[in-house]
């Protein structure tokens, strides 16, 4: 949004939670944003005049404004102990009321405060909230939002250890960093109420707020680790592209008013409008994410895609090299089945393997088997014994097509009755890339010398040996036993 409005992207590290905030977590954020292509104009490593950019380095600024609020009467020092606060919570709970600070120190005079300070008692800074009235904002997405103040109670802005609370930090930071728009999840609406009060008390101009809906899991629960990857780094490791991730995330709760779904980052910047962000929750659909990523992956320049796949194959111990003629040929053949880079691993593994026996026992091939599959097997084995099959495979696409056409003519088969049995018997699978391209690549895998010993390559010779050993009567019996006979039913007429 900031790019579409001609604004700046300021990266602020909100690290006041000392237990959870580490330099490693900060580096992960910087690394993930860089990978996504989201370049910031100002931040920890790019000073633009409104730093420091880590909240942990802005403590003196927060203390200054906290004291200003005390002087103006909008805040006060609270000396309540943990036991006293717990008693207040229990009392509210007993009355079926929301927890609310009693205001014990809100009306303390100067002498009472000085006496506690002299004793060295710890204290927090509390923001004073009116007992009546309301706060209103015009949300860019949800329209007018109004909160009543009578249930809020005075809230802490500085803890007893001097650490500022999130709501106070971000209000001061947004104002002093001249943030014009605050766009965040709807679960921050309660925070917006507190921040709006702080803006008003300090005389800061109110930014424009927009609260987007949460991204939910397919079961409409909140996304969590049980639903899969939860960090940008994990998606990167799974083989997703940055442009695919940005494209998909932009479409969660937004569209440009057309049927278009594939956008580059510069197109998203040009087309984005906050007015087209929806109020309804977006559902995270991993299938759709993979589809969008696949569109971007397959449209990469051939050299870039080949490099990605080659490096993956070498790292996965499928190939002993990451570049060269075989890698280039393999990418061209397997490209159509790629949605994430890691799909290249499965694609090549499938090509090298030969699960014939398993496939022949699958109910999904019963129709193919019942259509005299043995006839096609005999034709393939005869062609192999004569050398015609090998010549057709290694001579390229045209010779392969000639052999298939000739085999079909001799068996009076064509179309699916010809192609599907040949695919099943030579590759061991019902589906895959173009069969002619697949068997040619299989031949190159045998002869290139770059397939890793652990890759599970089943040679054409080994395939034909196993095909000869198939007991067709046994195959038919096994398939018949997997098909459950329909139960008989009796209809009674009255």
UniProtKB/TrEMBL annotation:
It is found in: Mitochondrion. This is glutamate--tRNA ligase. GO terms for biological process: glutamyl-tRNA aminoacylation. Its EC number is 6.1.1.17. Belongs to the class-I aminoacyl-tRNA synthetase family. Glutamate--tRNA ligase type 1 subfamily. Residues 307-447 form the Aminoacyl-tRNA synthetase class I anticodon-binding domain. GO terms for molecular function: ATP binding; glutamate-tRNA ligase activity; tRNA binding; zinc ion binding. InterPro entries: aa-tRNA-synth_I_cd-bd, aa-tRNA-synth_I_codon-bd_sub2, aa_tRNA-synth_I_cd-bd_sf, Glu-tRNA-ligase_bac/mito, Glu/Gln-tRNA-synth, Glu/Gln-tRNA-synth_Ib_cat-dom, GluQ/Sye, GluRS_core. It is an enzyme of class 6 (ligase). One of its GO terms (cellular component) is mitochondrion.
């Amino acid at each position: 949004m900031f790019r579409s409005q001609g604004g700046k992207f300021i990266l602020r590290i909100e690290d006041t939670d000392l237990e959870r905030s580490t330099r490693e977590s900060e580096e992960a954020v910087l690394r993930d944003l860089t990978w996504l292509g989201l370049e910031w104009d100002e931040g920890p490593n790019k000073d633009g005049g409104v730093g420091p950019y880590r909240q942990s380095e802005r403590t003196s600024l927060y203390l200054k404004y906290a004291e200003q609020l005390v002087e103006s009467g909008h805040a006060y020092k609270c000396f309540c102990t943990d036991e006293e606060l717990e008693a207040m919570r229990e009392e509210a709970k007993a009355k079926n009321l929301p927890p609310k600070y009693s205001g014990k120190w809100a009306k303390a005079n100067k002498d009472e405060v000085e006496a506690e300070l002299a004793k060295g008692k710890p204290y927090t800074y509390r923001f004073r909230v009116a007992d009546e009235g309301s706060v209103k904002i015009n949300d860019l997405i949800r329209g007018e939002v109004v909160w009543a103040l009578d249930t809020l109670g005075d809230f802490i802005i500085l803890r007893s250890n001097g650490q500022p609370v999130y709501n106070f930090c971000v209000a001061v930071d947004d104002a002093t960093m001249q943030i014009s728009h605050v766009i965040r999840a709807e679960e921050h609406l309660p925070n917006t109420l507190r921040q709006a009060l702080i803006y008003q008390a300090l005389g800061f101009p109110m930014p424009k707020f927009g609260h987007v809906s949460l991204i939910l899991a397919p079961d409409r629960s909140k996304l969590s680790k049980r639903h899969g990857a939860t960090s940008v780094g994990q998606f990167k490791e799974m083989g997703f592209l940055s442009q695919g991730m940005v494209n998909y995330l932009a479409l969660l709760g937004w569209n440009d008013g057309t049927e278009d779904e594939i956008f580059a980052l510069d197109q998203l910047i040009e087309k984005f409008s906050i007015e087209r962000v929806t109020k309804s929750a977006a559902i995270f659909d991993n299938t759709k994410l993979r589809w969008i990523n696949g569109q971007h992956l397959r449209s990469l320049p051939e050299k870039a895609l080949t490099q990605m796949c080659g490096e993956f194959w070498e790292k996965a111990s499928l190939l002993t090299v990451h570049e060269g003629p075989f890698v280039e040929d393999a990418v061209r053949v397997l490209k159509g089945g790629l949605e994430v880079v890691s799909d290249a691993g499965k694609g090549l593994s499938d090509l090298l393997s030969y699960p014939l026996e398993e496939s022949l026992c699958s109910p999904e091939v019963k129709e193919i088997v019942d259509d005299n599959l043995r006839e096609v097997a005999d034709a393939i084995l005869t062609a192999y014994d004569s050398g015609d099959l090998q010549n057709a495979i290694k001579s390229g696409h045209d010779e392969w097509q000639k052999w298939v056409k000739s085999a079909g003519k001799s068996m009076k088969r064509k179309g699916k009755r010809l192609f599907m049995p040949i695919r099943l018997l030579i590759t061991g699978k019902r589906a895959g890339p173009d069969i002619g391209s697949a068997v040619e690549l299989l031949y190159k895998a045998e002869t290139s010398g770059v397939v890793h010993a652990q890759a599970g390559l089943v040679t054409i010779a080994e395939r034909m040996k196993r095909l000869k050993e198939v007991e067709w009567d046994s195959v038919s019996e096994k398939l018949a036993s997997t098909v459950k006979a329909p139960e008989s039913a009796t209809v009674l007429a009255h």
